[in-house]
What does this fold into?
Amino acid sequence: MNEDILNLEIRKYLKQYGVTSQREFEHAVLKAIETGKIKGSEALDFKMTLDIPALGVNHCIEGKIALE
It folds into this structure.
């Protein structure tokens, strides 16, 4: 195993994940405000899960994201 390559590949994955997740989150919030599902002043609960079946990893992060 080459640790430098592993590190680079993980960083590329996290960058892609972060950018696409932010877009999806923003789109979902705007749509929910437009349809009246939320007001736009809430703090929204979130849950993200990292699942790597080949390694037996299932790691969950939970939190809140404030809209104001």
In short: The first strand starts at residue 43 and ends at 52. The longest helix spans residues 3-34. Strands lie at 43-52, 57-66.
